[in-house]
């Protein structure tokens, strides 16, 4: 078996393998490694395993993150909530894990982080801080019903005249609402360059959903549709949008669009376990799925995880909310790529 790094010349084989794997989603595509990671300021180090017939038998998307503030790490994969190893067998997964550790030693990074790495429990220290929220759609003719409270909010939103539109390519409109939402949450936002790279890397698989009130967009969701999985990638709402329940309308519309496209699952994305984000997503009776982030120290000890509920992170969010919008935007482009 050979281990090769992902390059332009073998990306077609990489994508063909990912497309045939049910667990693959957009961050597993070669474009995420070759285009999105450089836009975040990271180096790609994605690994591909091939057998004696030169057939791909496993892939591991990886990015090298190096920062004076957050240290250095090898992650699968920066910018995505999960994107672990795809392989033919546990043996191949183990070989890819060892190859990643060897690469981390050569690069002198502090640790390796494999996101959603259940197969490596014996090798890596598993932490469960986040959940994802996949909604099964297979066999359904209509979207699954939300709880009574949420259905009531959706009816009120319809009575208020909220309308939904899905458009390709309107990243400017999306980014404006996204920035406002991230400022309210106290979180550094990704720059436009990240979303432009994501759009280019996703092979036409992205759509921008808008919820309008009286002709003005008040909520948005960047949706991904690929390999039978629909996903809410990045979402946001204005203060008026939240008051009008536009954020709830956006979720319902995203689920309906995934069902219309024949997706087997719609994923509501990642939220910290027990957070307000989790409570919001559970209105759709979705079962939280733990994200197993496996970490292994390479040079020194493991750093503390980025648990958003820790006191110093709550303080950081409070301080961030007080910054001028222009400064939030400028700093966010330098900080966000090292947090996600």
Describe this entry's structure for a reader.
The chain has 340 residues and is an alpha+beta fold. The protein has helices spanning 11-19, 30-39, 90-107, 148-159, 171-185, 192-201, 239-243, 246-260, 276-281, 311-321, 325-335; strands at residues 2-5, 43-44, 47-50, 56-60, 63-67, 71-76, 86-87, 111-115, 125-127, 130-136, 163-167, 206-213, 216-226, 229-237, 265-272, 289-290, 293-297. The strands form 3 sheets. A 7-stranded mixed β-sheet has the order 11-12-13-14-15-10-16. Strands 2-5-6-8-17-9 form a 6-stranded mixed β-sheet, with helices on both faces. α2 (30-39) runs antiparallel to α6. It starts with a strand and ends in a 5-residue tail after the last helix.
Helix-strand layout with pairing:
Elements: E1 2-5, H1 11-19, H2 30-39, E2 43-44, E3 47-50, E4 56-60, E5 63-67, E6 71-76, E7 86-87, H3 90-107, E8 111-115, E9 125-127, E10 130-136, H4 148-159, E11 163-167, H5 171-185, H6 192-201, E12 206-213, E13 216-226, E14 229-237, H7 239-243, H8 246-260, E15 265-272, H9 276-281, E16 289-290, E17 293-297, H10 311-321, H11 325-335
Parallel strand pairs: 6-8, 14-15
Antiparallel strand pairs: 1-3, 2-5, 3-4, 4-7, 5-6, 8-17, 9-17, 10-15, 10-16, 11-12, 12-13, 13-14
Helix pairs in contact: 2-6
């Amino acid at each position: 078996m050979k281990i090769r790094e992902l390059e332009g010349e073998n990306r077609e084989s990489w994508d063909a393998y990912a497309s045939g794997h049910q667990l693959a989603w957009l961050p597993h595509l070669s474009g995420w490694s070759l285009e999105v990671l450089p836009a975040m300021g990271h180096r790609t180090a994605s690994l591909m395993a091939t057998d004696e017939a030169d057939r791909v038998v496993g892939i591991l998307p990886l990015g090298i993150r190096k920062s004076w503030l957050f240290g250095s790490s090898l992650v699968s994969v920066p910018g995505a909530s999960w994107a672990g190893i795809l392989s033919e067998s546990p043996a191949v997964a183990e070989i890819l894990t060892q190859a990643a550790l060897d690469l981390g030693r050569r690069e002198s990074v502090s640790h390796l982080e494999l996101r959603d790495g259940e197969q490596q429990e014996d090798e890596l220290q598993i932490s469960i801080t986040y959940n994802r929220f996949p909604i099964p759609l297979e066999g359904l003719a209509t979207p699954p019903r939300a709880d009574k409270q949420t259905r009531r909010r959706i009816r009120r939103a319809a009575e208020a005249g909220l309308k939904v539109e899905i458009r390709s390519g309107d990243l400017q409109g999306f980014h404006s609402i996204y920035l406002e939402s991230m400022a309210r949450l106290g979180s550094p936002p990704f720059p436009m360059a990240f979303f432009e790279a994501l759009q280019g890397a996703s092979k036409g698989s992205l759509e921008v959903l808008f919820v309008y009130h009286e002709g003005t967009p008040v909520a948005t969701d960047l949706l991904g549709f690929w390999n039978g999985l629909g996903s809410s990638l990045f979402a946001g709402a204005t203060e008026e949008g939240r008051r009008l329940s536009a954020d709830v309308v956006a979720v319902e519309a995203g689920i309906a669009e995934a069902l219309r496209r024949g997706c087997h699952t719609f994923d509501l994305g990642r939220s910290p376990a027990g957070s307000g984000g989790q409570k919001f997503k559970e209105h759709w009776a979705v079962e939280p799925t733990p994200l197993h982030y496996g970490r292994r120290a390479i040079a020194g000890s493991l750093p503390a995880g980025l648990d958003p509920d820790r006191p110093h992170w709550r303080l950081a969010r409070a301080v961030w909310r007080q910054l001028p919008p222009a400064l939030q935007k400028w700093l966010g482009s330098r900080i966000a790529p090292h947090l996600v």
